[in-house]
Amino acid sequence: MSHLYKSVPVRSSEITPKQVYLSRRDFMKAATLATSAALLAACAPSVTAQPQDAGPVPTSNATDELGDMVNTYSDITTYNNYYEFSTDKQSVASLAKDFKTTPWTVEVGGLVNKPKTYGVEDLLKLFPPEERIYRLRCVEAWSMVIPWEGFMLSKLLKAVEPTSDAKYVRFETLLDKKQMPGTSSPFYPWPYQEGLRLDEAMNDLTILATGLYGEDLPAQDGGPIRLVVPWKYGFKSIKAIIKIELTSEQPATMWSSIAPNEYGFYANVNPGVDHPRWSQVSERRIGEISRRGTLLFNGYGDQVAHLYDGMDLTKNY
Ligand code: MTE
After folding, report:
1. Is the CB of 253 under 6 A from ligand 1?
2. For 274-283, how does the pLDDT look when each residue is reduced to its tens digit (9 = 90+)?
3. Fewer CB within 10 Å, N side or C side of the chain?
4. Distance CA 245, CA 225 (A)
């Protein structure tokens, strides 16, 4: 996979050289005795201030634009929300270990002039991925900094030519009961689905991610292809996408159909609007001991606040 280290919105000085990732990966391969205890330690807030392993770690200039260090590969790939596999974050990686990510196609259709089904390989050729270091803020009030590779969703949407009636974009995750043990739970209205307003989808920050730390996107993080919308709570960033559909009506989303008063369609990160069952004022950055304040729009207000001019964010939560 080629990597175009484009500088928007991440400065090239913030990017960890690929060799560092690769040497770390080699270390991790070698460290076959990395016990589950060590992996668990990577996720426990009380112990992660200490080094979790002796291998090379991302260089000190691997930060987001606010100067916050990227999380370790281990943090990002062993602490996952992916209900199709499990509701236990630390079980997802092992349950997704054999998940088949190739071949994989994404059907793009609905209100477009040029509907098309793309193989992931085609997408990577048409839209070479670039690195984006983004904060991910889960609605559960934990967060990470993640070096994704991906391409702007706007490029794909422009290629299929939305019609003038298209106002929203709907996304759907694969539903495969054989491979995804969590989908046997009748509590959730599978498949996982999500949506964005078309202007949100066209924003330069919105990407389809296909890689992480210079490698293909691991299954537990939504491989082979997922959405990343960094100013919204993590549940908007839908994993393992098989379908993208342009619509005229606001699409139903999985979490807002389960609990509309808890999970709105917009789901913009907002410390001023609490979840009905907990505060959103602060968050626990995985790997840190003390909590930190949550930023409006997760710190991306300069790029996205205009999308919500005139809207009451307490009502459109
Ligand atoms: N996508 C699907 N298909 N299924 C899920 O359960 N969980 C969401 C989101 N995308 C989820 C999903 C939630 S709640 C979060 S916080 C992020 O994925 C977590 O992404 P990560 O595991 O890569 O950190």
Report:
1. no
2. 999 999 999 9
3. N
4. 16
What's the pLDDT score for residue 14? Answer: 40
Minimal-distance CA residue to ligand 1 atom 11 = 82
**Which atom of ligand 1 is closest in space to residue 240's alpha carbon?**
3
Only one residue has tokens 């908007």, namely 236
Q: What is the pTM of this model?
A: 0.84
Whether 317 is covered by a domain: the verdict is: no
138: CA distance to ligand 1 center in Å?
9
| Number of domains forming the structure of the chain | 1
Report how far apart the first and last C-alpha atoms of the chain are (Å, whole number): 38
Strands 193-197 and 207-212: unpaired
Report if residue 198 sits inside a domain: yes
Question: What is the pLDDT at residue 56?
Answer: 44
- Average pLDDT value for residue range 112-138: 98
The whole-number average pLDDT for the span 56-62 is 51
Q: How far is C-alpha 174 from the chain's CA centre?
A: 16
**Ligand 1 pocket test target in 94, 228, 239 with most atoms within 8 Å of CB:** 239
Residue 215 has pLDDT above 80, yes or no: yes
Q: Is 90 exposed, middle or buried (CB count within 10 Å of its CB: 0-12, 13-18, 19+)?
A: middle
- Output the pLDDT for position 61: 57
Confirm whether 309 is domain-assigned.
no
State which residues form the domain around 154: 8-303
| 113 Cα–ligand 1 center, Å | 31
Atom in ligand 1 nearest the alpha carbon of residue 173 = 3
Q: Is 82 in the pocket of ligand 1 (CB under 6 A)?
A: yes
Q: What is the CATH number of the domain that holds 17?
A: 3.90.420.10
CA of 264 to the centre of ligand 1 (A): 16
